[in-house]
Every structure is written in C-alpha cells, then in structure tokens.
Write a structure and sequence with these properties.
The chain has about 550 residues and is an alpha/beta fold. The protein is about 40% helix and about 15% strand. The strands form 4 sheets. It has an 8-stranded parallel β-barrel with strand order 7-8-9-10-13-14-16-17, surrounded by 5 helices. The protein is globular and about 95 Å long. The two termini are about 35 Å apart.
C-alpha cells in the first residue's frame, strides 16, 4: 500500500485498546472486520498504520497529543443490514435488503422461500407456469410454517391466458397471500389492479392501509410509470361497476401507487429486455422522484436492482447507485434448494458469461417475446428459434416442407404432429379449453399451440432432469451465472453441493460491505492494491463468525 497524498490529513487519531499495526495484511484484516471502524494513520517513521479502535478527531490541523497520529483516511463500520433503504427493510419486515427472485415452475421452491425468510430476506415462490392447484399446494406448505416470516408469490402477466391470471389472483386473495412479485407486465391488467386495491381501507389515524402489496419487476420506463402511479381510472371504474370493489375501496385506490416497491430489471435470465444496469437504475430512480412529486404520496416507492448481480462487486455497485435492495435470480437456480435437477445445477456451474442467448418464450410465443437462456450443453435455443421461424413463414403445419416436418417429428416431438396435438389438447382441456376451439377454427393457432407445447415441456424436462431430453433443456439464465462461476472458482462455492441460498446471499452482502469500505478509503486518496477489498467466498460458519448473526 502506498499513499501519494501522505501530507494531507483528515485530523488526528488517539490510541484505543490496541496499538496500530502496519502492513497490507493488517489492513486487509481490518477492512474485512466490517463491524469495527477502520483508521488509516501515518506512523512516526512515515509507515502507514491501521487501527480498528481509538478516537478520531476530524478536521483539526494540530496534534492534540504527542502520541496522536495523523489520520489519513477513515471508514465507519458497515454491516449488511445497513445497506440499501431502511424504509424498504422496515416495510417488508426484513433484516437484509435482499430478494430471491421468482423463477417459474417452482424453481424458486417452497424450501428456498422458507430459507430466505428465516434468514431475514424475501423469497418469491415461482408460481409462473404452474396450475392453480400446484400454487395452492405451495401456499399450504409455506403458510403452515410461515411463523410470521416474510414470503411472497409470483404473479406473472399472462396475455394469452388472462383467465389463469384472474384465477391465481382470486387464489391469492382467498388464501391471504399479501405480497406478490408482478413480473413480465407490459401493461396493468384487471386482475392485477383488483389484487392491489381489494381490502384497502383507512386506519384509525386516517392513513390509507393497503393490505395487498406488490413489488413490480420492470425494465421499461413506460411500464414503470404505471406502477409509480395510482391504478388506472378505467380499471377502477370497471371493478366498481362489476361489484368487485366497493365505492370506498375505489376512492382510496386513487391515493396509492400501484407498487409498494419496484425492481429495475436489467440483463437477467428469463423474460428480459437485456437492459444495462448502469443506465436503467438511475433512470428508474429519477422517474420515481418525478412521479412522487406529481402525486405527493406519503412515502417514496423504493427502487431496487436485479439482473447481472452475482458478485460482491456488482452488489456494491448497485447499492452505490442508490438501489434500495438487490434481487437475485439466475445464480439461485444453481443452489441446492432450487426446484430443478442436479443435472441443471451442474450445467449452470460450468457456464461462462457468453454462454447465454435469447430464445422464443413459451407463454408469449406468437408475440415474438423472447427469454434469455443457457445455450451451452443444450440445443433448445436453436430449436426454439427454428419453431418460431416456421410459425412466421407458414399458415398451416401442412405447408411446411416435408423434410422439415419429418425433422420436427423425429427430433422435437418424438412423435407425429397429430399425436403431439392430442397431448396438447389434453393439456389445454384442463387449462383453457377456449384455446382448443380457436385451434380447430384456425390451423395457424393449432400449429402455435403444438410448437408452444415443446417450449413449455423443455423447462419441465430440465427441472426433472429427464436424461432422454437433456439436449432440449430450457434453462433460464443470464450472464450473471458466468460471473458467479468465475468468482467462486477454487473456493468453497465452486462445488454445487455447497451452494445454499443463504450462504450465497450472505457472501454477496458481506463482500459488498468490504468492497464499499475499500472504495471509501480510495476516495480519500489511498492507493490500495487491487486485491484489497475483494473477498473470496466463505463458508457459512466463517460468515457467522464475522457477522455475529444467525442466519
């Protein structure tokens, strides 16, 4: 360590319980002891010294004592629970500003949600793609052992199946699910607004109480604007006219924003617009301030960041930019609590940052919407793109050239088209029978449903680890996975068996605290070695010893 501005002092330091020590190792140890303050001092022989106790007298230019040392830099304690926005932590009854994002088809599992809640974080069960019966079963499991711990469920936009979205909302309301993660919304919907305002009332002190909370996940400014605003008047009126909400609920709905918090979704796995976090978060924060000024809400809506966060450096950057919290997705899929197969976890553990690609989404196939997936070790992205190309090119399945149809039936469906259509019919008979009627009247829609069945099953094959369909696995993944693997290489977290959701989370938060403290020293003119401030992943036991908090 060197200090080019050694003559510039911030004040003086008086000795505490321990004498200061010199050397890079002493600095590194002090920096990583995040519960204690850190003082960088000039020694009598011009050595640079480190101390973690004593008294700092800031702003004075004369020594108050012959034993005092000039103070060159100072970093206060910084614990994970003090990162982010304290209003967000208090509002959702958390200990840490950390969300385990909802990964569909139960990949964010009941077990993962429980573990996150027990550690003082929020986990959102991945309800997307599941039937109401399976979602209800997950509610039963989580609520049976909730113990007032924070938890939430995903509510995904379903433009091709609005009735399913409505059924899920009715389920959440009837079962007392009071927090949802609203994801993939391109516009506000009738069911979403109904969930938000049902049960709204005034407290005894006159304040508005909204029992149903929403944390929106958004990548577009025009959509974020809707979540920062009160519910749309036309939907409030429709809900009132149809008797879904009372006149009082409709009146109070005009006084609240649609979202209790909003996650700026950058380059993530699954549904994503591949936004740059450095550009997106400041934009969303500025928009939030603009909308709060327009509507004069009592509390500003906290804005967090998700997408691409997989290392302490990325977490530190998010909090430095003003994120109220961080939301983690792709790397959680590689954790032992994830509702996916050991085969998928191993494939993810081998991924590099460039091993991801965009592919057609099953739920919004006809609209051309894409999701980000793993391309290493699977042919799903190429096969899904081929299906969309054929859908765009031909009116009916029979119009597709014979050789290509043979290829689809041999490699994709493992059956004839008609056999695949029969299985697809059986699925929609239980899910949405209207789709069958449309398909029988419109051969192009029939073709779309069959193609969508391949896309939908591909994630199921991955989650169950079907060895016969490994080449067709659809694994939602962003470049964060590759960054995480690079950071953990050679550490305890390189082995997938050691990747537990809480150990990963606490490593990110702890490492962010160390990195931020190192940056504070650099901002005061210290030239630190590049590796100082960067920590390697630690075991759960080591983290507990450093943080002195059970998680």
């Amino acid at each position: 360590m060197s200090h080019p501005n050694a003559t510039i002092t911030r004040g003086y330091w008086l000795s505490g319980d321990m004498e200061p020590v010199k050397g890079d190792q002493a600095l590194k140890t002090a920096l990583e002891t995040i519960s204690l303050p850190l003082y960088i001092l000039k020694g009598n022989d011009k050595d640079i010294l480190t101390a973690t106790s004593g008294t700092a007298l800031l702003g004075i230019d004369k020594s108050p004592d012959k034993n005092a040392h000039p103070l060159l830099a100072y970093a206060p304690p910084l614990m994970p629970e003090t990162l982010g926005d304290p209003h967000f932590i208090s509002k959702f009854n958390l200990h840490y500003p950390y969300i385990c994002g909802a990964m569909a088809n139960g990949i964010t599992s009941v077990n993962m949600v429980r573990k996150a809640g027990q550690a003082g974080m929020i986990g959102f069960f991945g309800a997307g793609g599941l039937t109401p019966d399976k979602v209800a079963d997950a509610i039963d499991q989580i609520q049976s052992k909730a113990d007032n711990l924070p938890y939430g469920f995903n509510l995904i936009h379903s433009p091709n199946d609005p009735e399913l979205e409505e059924r899920i909302v009715q389920l959440y309301l009837s079962r007392g699910v009071r927090l949802v993660s609203a994801s993939a919304y391109m516009d506000l919907t009738f069911p979403l607004v109904y969930y938000r305002i049902k049960g709204i009332h005034r407290n005894r002190d006159g304040s508005v109480a909204c029992p149903n909370q929403i944390i929106a996940k958004v990548s577009r400014v025009e959509v974020a604007r809707k979540f920062f605003s009160p519910p749309p008047e036309k939907l409030i009126q429709k809900l009132t006219e149809q008797g879904w909400v009372t006149a009082e609920e409709a009146k109070l709905a005009r006084q609240i924003p649609m979202a209790d918090a909003l996650t700026a979704e950058a380059d993530s796995g699954g549904h994503t617009d591949n936004r740059s976090a450095l550009a997106l978060l400041p934009t969303m924060l500025a928009l939030r301030d603009e909308m709060m000024a327009i509507y004069g809400f009592e509390q500003p809506v906290p804005v967090g960041l998700g997408g691409g966060i997989a290392t302490p450096d990325a977490a530190a950057a998010a909090f430095s930019m003003g994120a109220a919290y961080i939301l983690i997705g792709s790397i959680n899929q590689a954790c032992i609590e994830a509702g996916t197969s050991a085969t998928v976890r191993q494939m993810l553990a081998e991924a590099q940052q460039a091993d991801v690609i965009m592919a057609p989404a099953a739920d919004m196939f006809e609209m051309g919407v894409k999701v980000q997936v793993l391309k290493r070790g699977t042919m799903f992205p190429m096969r899904a793109a081929k299906l969309y190309e054929l859908y765009q090119t031909y009116i009916t399945y029979e119009d597709i050239p014979l050789q290509q149809r043979k290829m689809l039936e041999r490699d994709y469906f493992k059956s004839s088209f008609e056999e695949q259509w029969q299985r697809t019919k059986d699925f929609f008979q239980q899910r949405d029978a209207k789709q069958i009627e449309r398909a029988q009247a419109n051969p192009k829609h029939k073709m779309a449903l069959v193609f969508r069945s391949y896309l939908g099953q591909s994630s199921h094959w991955a989650n169950t680890g079907d060895p016969q369909r490994k080449i067709d696995y659809q694994i939602w993944c962003g470049p964060a996975m590759g960054a995480f693997n690079e950071w953990t290489r050679g550490s305890i977290l390189e082995d997938t068996a050691n990747r537990s959701i809480v150990t990963v989370a606490m490593n990110l938060l702890y490492g962010a605290c160390v990195q931020l403290r190192a940056n504070w020293l650099r901002y005061q003119g210290l030239a630190l070695k590049s590796d100082i401030g960067r920590v390697r992943p630690l075991s759960r036991k080591s983290l507990y010893e450093k943080l002195n908090h059970h998680f």
